[in-house]
Amino acid sequence: MATSLRTLFLIGALGAVAFVLPACKRGASSSGEARNVDPSQVVAKVDDAVITVTDVQDRINKQSPFVRARYTNADKKKEFLDGLVKFEVMAAEAARRGYDKDPDVQRVMKQQMISKLMQKDFESKLKVEDVPDGDVEKYYNEHPTEFHQKDEVRVSQIVVKDKAKADHVYAEAHALPKSATGADQKGFRDLVTKYSEDDESKTRAGDLSFFAEDSATIPKPIVEAAFKLKEVGDLAPPVKTDKGWAIIRLTQKRPGFNRSLADVKRQIQQRLFRDLRSKAMDTFVDDLKKKSNITINEDNLAKVVVESGTGRPGGPEGLPGAISPVGALSLR
Q1: CA 20 to 30 Å from 113, out of 176, 221, 270, 325?
Q2: CA atoms within 13 A on the CB side of 48
Q3: Domains and CATH numbers, the chain
Q4: How many CA atoms lie within 13 A of 170 on its CB side?
Q5: Does residue 141 contact residue 151 with C-beta atoms inside 8 Å?
Q6: Using CA atoms, how far apart are residues 131 and 280, in angstroms rounded to an integer?
């Protein structure tokens, strides 16, 4: 584990020195003084490693505009170059010590190669606009509840058999605070526990969940009374139902919506594109596997011991830079 820690620390240190993780992609064109310079001209040599005009230029121009502005004068360029020289010196020393053959380093290198492969030869060939309009329209028509919703309300009820008792419960409920605070809701729930004679709704503290005005599952008298309530916390006088008398209280209102196909086309395209990209990725990898000589020893696979708990420090989730083999092929 000590070797792994040293390796990952070295990778992080080298990356920091050489600015190998730029904040953004290439911005404006090179500065005027560099336009007429042969980009292959050598700026510095570190043993066998060569740093050219292009190397320095590209590394600087891959920084954010704010960072790039620091390196417009000769002294700052020299300072930046010194960072690249330090990078090459440390990389050479790491190679001399055999760190280039370290499994963690090899894994990081493979991860970077896979990222380049995905960006240059896979993801760049797929676009959201490639999703056919017919597929977008089909999804829109097959998922109406995602794009069309009627006005809905949510109420809680207390059900009793006797009208006189219902009037008494209504008066007690009416005395509760009207605001939709936690204490207010608790007060009505306590009355449900104390008085309600409907076992089915009583187990849910009287909650009937959301329903629309055309609901076929909620008794029509309750639906009609519920949609007459204006504000959360309002009570309806006792309502006659097949189960007796119900005192209902408005707990939530949810306005409906209607979104046209034109309004949600891009949203649907992006959703379908994820599926399209995932399938294309599966096909891409399957084709590569067919071209490879792959053998699997399931008996040895069964010998793999997976530790319980959070894992050891320095494992795949313990340190930055450790790569999950599954994550290597993830597309975000």
Answers
A1: 270
A2: 4
A3: 1-97 (no CATH), 102-148+261-332 (no CATH), 151-255 (3.10.50.40)
A4: 17
A5: no
A6: 12
* Structure token digits, residue 168: 């008494």
Report yes or no: 202 and 192 within 8 Å, Cβ to Cβ: yes
Give residue 38's pLDDT. Answer: 65
Concatenating the DSSP letter of every residue in 205-237 gives TTEEEEEETT-SSS-HHHHHHHTT--STT-EEE
Section 58-62 average pLDDT: 90
Residues 6+ apart with CB under 8 A from 269: 128, 129, 131, 136
At residue 242, the 3 state secondary structure works out as coil
Which DSSP string do the residues of 4-72 spell out, in sequence order? HHHHHHHHHHHHHHHT-S-SSS--SPPPHHHHTS-TTSEEEEETTEEEEHHHHHHHHHTS-HHHHGGGS
Task: Tell me the C-alpha to C-alpha distance, in Å, between residue 325 and each of 107, 114, 237, 317, 328.
Answer: 9, 11, 63, 12, 5
Pairing mode of beta strands 244-254, 235-241: antiparallel
| Whole-number Å distance between alpha carbons of 43 and 74 | 13
pTM, 2 dp: 0.49
Q: How far is C-alpha 138 from the geometric centre of its chain's CA atoms? A: 26
Query: Which tokens belong to 280?
Result: 């294309």
Q: Tokens 């009570």 identify what position?
A: 235
Residue type, 30: S
Q: Is the pLDDT of residue 114 over 70?
A: yes
% helix / strand / coil in the chain, to the nearest 5? 55, 15, 35
User: Tokens standing for 104?
Assistant: 């963690």
Position 184 scores a pLDDT of 66
What length does the chain have? 332
Q: How buried is 189 (Cβ within 10 angstroms: 0-12 exposed, 13-18 middle, 19+ buried)?
A: middle
Give the model's confidence band at 11: pLDDT under 50 very low, under 70 low, under 90 confident, else very high: very low
Q: What gap in Å lies between CA 276 and CA 125, rounded to an integer? A: 12
Quick one: which of 78, 77, 107, 99 has its CA closest to 14? Answer: 99
